[in-house]
Design brief:
The protein is globular, with a radius of gyration of 16 Å. Helix 1 packs parallel to helix 2 and helix 1 crosses helix 9. The chain has nine helices and eight strands. The chain has an eight-stranded parallel β-barrel, surrounded by six helices. With 212 residues, it is α/β, with parallel strands linked by helices.
Length: 212
């Protein structure tokens, strides 16, 4: 399992609370991989938000990744950056980010295969299921294509898009190294409890694989 098997992605549109409060609740629930995704704020505000989250995640010894902005990730001493298809080229980011974690979003078998040549540490693949988190999301790729991707590439694959507690078994059975989640955690009445449920189920799945 990659970094505990579950990445929480921030999303202020899903839950009307501060990013710091949602991240603290998730961390209290046991998740130790946090990704700051912020598309609407000015870069200056994203920087200060990332700076606060870096301090918070450090208190929990959690991995902290910044979306889209390698310079901000470096400035706040984040563990790494996650880059989309239209963001800064991952292979160029590697040149000045050294050994920092670099993730890369992919949406097809071709993009996933190409990502291996770019020096990234893991790829995100999806959306696996229909998602309302991103208005411009592609059509769902499904677990069968996810299975094909995980067989074709040697990089760890993080499944993203519409991931729910109930779908964890089939997503990991398809070869995912981790899942990225926003809505299913943030829409729960108790964010910490929902986070804890994700952690427990993924730990159970991991133990089953180890026995096998």
């Amino acid at each position: 399992m990659l970094y505990g098997g579950v990445c929480f992605i921030t999303d202020r549109k899903v839950r009307d609370i501060s990013v710091e409060d949602m991240v603290k609740a998730v961390l209290d629930g046991g998740i130790r991989w946090i990704q700051l995704r912020e598309k609407e704020l000015p870069r200056r505000e994203i920087f200060y938000m990332a700076e606060r989250l870096r301090l918070l995640t450090r208190q929990y010894s959690a991995v902290f990744i910044v979306n889209d902005h390698p310079d901000i990730a470096l400035a706040v001493e984040a563990d790494g950056v996650h880059l989309g298809q239209d963001d800064f080229p991952p292979e160029r980011a590697r040149k000045f980010m050294g050994t920092a974690i670099i993730g890369h979003s992919t949406h097809s078998l071709k993009e996933a295969a190409e990502a291996e040549k770019k020096g990234v540490d893991y790829i995100g693949f999806g959306p696996i299921y229909r998602t309302t988190t991103k208005a411009d999301a592609d059509e769902p790729k499904g677990v069968e294509l996810l299975k094909e991707v995980t067989k074709r590439v040697s990089l760890p694959v993080v499944a993203i898009g519409g991931i729910r507690l109930e779908s964890l078994e089939e997503v990991f059975a398809a070869g995912a190294a981790a899942v990225a989640v926003a809505s299913d955690i943030l829409r729960a009445s108790d964010i910490s409890k929902r986070s804890m449920e994700f952690v427990k189920i993924i730990e159970k799945i991991a133990k089953g694989y180890n026995r096998g």
